[in-house]
Structure formats: structure tokens, C-alpha cells
Amino acid sequence: MAKRSENNSGLVYSTDQGRMCPGCGRPVAGCACAKGRGAPPGDGVVRISRQTKGRKGAGVTCVTGLSLPPGELEALAGRLKRRCGAGGTVRDGVIEIQGEHREALAEELRRLGHKVKLAGG
Questions:
Q1: Closest to 23 in 3D by CA, of 37, 5, 35
Q2: Model pTM?
Q3: Which of 54, 56, 65, 50 is nearest to 96 (CA)?
Q4: Parallel, antiparallel, or unpaired: how do β-strands 60-64 and 18-19 relate?
Q5: HSE-up of residue 14 (Cα within 13 Å, Cβ side)
Q6: What are phi and psi of 16, to 5 degrees?
């Protein structure tokens, strides 16, 4: 399928195939243009913050700034969730761990060789 133009808003969801890629028009699972993308650019600093916005007061610890491909990011998220004994997810390149675990996450990421900053309050 040909690449869609910027001004043409195409199909974004199909009940048969789920979410569709806006770039190539294929299902997200079989997207051809996502394979060519590398890790998002960053400044080399992993930032750990706590957020409650939009979560009805429940806090999550967010880890941003990791320049890893999606598969490795998922694997790291699993390791961090096990370290904290909490649930979590990866959303838009950000690892979200349920609860307040900034210090434990910072210690684990430093041990893995990342430069870590505690962001926010």
C-alpha cells in the first residue's frame, strides 16, 4: 500500500484488524514503516518522576528518556516491575510503575549503567 499524504486523514481503526498505522495504512502489528524507525532521540539522562494527573489520585512512577527499541523497553519494564513488586505498563515510550518507587528504580537503573535524575517533587 502506498504511503498516505499528510493532509489525507485515512483509516485509523478497523473492527477486523484493530488500530491502523497512519503512515502505511496497515494494521499496527504488521506496520512496515515502524520497523525502519529507530529509538527516539534523547539526551542520555533517564528521568524518574511521580504523577497523579488523570489517575483519580493514584500515583505512578514514570521513567522517561530511555533510548531503547520497543522490545527492549518492554523487557526492562518487566524487570523494573518485578524489582518493585508492582504493576505497570509501557505507554508511548514511557515506563509507568504503579506506586511510589523512585528510589528503587533509580538504584536499579544506575546498576544497569544509566545516568539517572529524579525529576519533579
A1: 5
A2: 0.62
A3: 50
A4: unpaired
A5: 12
A6: -80, -40
Residue 88: how many other CB atoms lie within 10 Å: 20
Query: Which parts of the chain have pLDDT scores under 70?
Result: 1-10, 12, 14, 32, 34-42, 121
Cell for 95? Answer: 515506563
Confidence (pLDDT) at 78 = 92
Question: What residue type is 8 in one-letter code?
Answer: N
- Pair type for strands 94-98 and 88-91: antiparallel
Q: Going by C-beta distance under 8 Å and a sequence separation of 6 or more, which residues neighbour residue 112?
A: 76
d(CA 77, CA 80): 5
3-state secondary structure of 8: coil
